[in-house]
Give the backbone structure.
Amino acid sequence: MKNLFVATGIVCGLVLLAAAPAGARVVEPGTIWRDTNGQIINAHGGGMLFHEGIYYWYGEFKEGLTYLPKVNKAWGGTRVIAGGVSCYSSTDLVTWKNEGLALPSNAQDPDHDLAAENVIERPKVIYNVRTKKFVMWFHQDSPNYAAARSGVAVSDTPAGPFKYLGSFRPNAGARPLNATEEDLKPSPRNLLARDLEGGQMARDMTVFVDDDGTAYQFYASESNQTMHVSQLSDDYLRPAGKYARIHIGKAWEAPAIFKHNGKYYMIGSGTTGWDPNPGRSAVADSIFGPWRELGNPCQGPGAELTFGCQSNYVLPVAGRPGRFIAMFDRWNKWNLQDSLYVWLPVEFDAEGKLLVSWQYRWTLPE
Ligand code: GAL
């Protein structure tokens, strides 16, 4: 019997070896991932930047107890103290060096936007070739997520430290490109009309740079019911005032955008907090829409709940046109600092729909 186990072990080992040739860059979704110091990578709700041959992974630094803050008599949703934005660097996408905090939170001043009691989520960094600045956008919020703002920071170097510029609700004083008079009619439930002057609510978000260098922010707005696509100013530091409403009333969040063969693609989720829900995807010929829904891209065991995950970013693999990696967080809502990362390749089926298939282990393209 013992021999049988040994023989089976050897065969399994050989099969794995055969599947992953020496030097292959192997990804094991949902397993503990350590940096070059042996520490667990702490970069949740993250985003990637590829700059001069190096990938930078930015994310929420989550450390400490998961708790349920009660603010103004309302429960705020479970979370950890905001630790700031972490940054890791890599040339191969599997070996990650900790670059420290690109934007620390502010432990001293409880009234500061970046106070540890507040929310710093879904950071994304883009590089502006004109100004030569690295620009970070993220979801900035109050402890009970009522502020719903976007924060912006800037740096001369990719790993920072970034200089915090401030936060705002985007597009104050601007009308959406596709809003009808009816859409703008004030009523107690019309959040778009209510916020026209002061700026639109913005929670889950991402930023995307198009081929012509124009950048866009996508944010969950109108109390997470409708998403906005908002063009940024040439320096990427603020909204340009040109924006459209998409997925109207569909409650999309966790947007991740990429472009392939001239079309814009989005992977996202529904709004169930840290709990997983069925993934969503969509395609558009113009970034301002219309966006056509393509359904849940996930395939295989656990696909109906996005493998227990929520989307955060889609990375185009450098030098490999048509290769994309979909990046997800597997949130552990009972202990958020233990949340894991799930990366899977994106494929396109014959009808142009997106497919993200579950794999326990896969190899990055050479
Ligand atoms: C999710 C969102 C996360 C975080 C969480 C808080 O809906 O995608 O980024 O904000 O809610 O409950």
Observations:
- Helices lie at 2-19, 181-184, 191-194.
- The pocket of beta-D-galactopyranose is lined by residues 45, 77, 121-122, 204, 253-254, 271, 273-274, 310 (CB under 6 Å).
- The first strand starts at residue 26 and ends at 27.
- The chain has three helices and 25 strands.
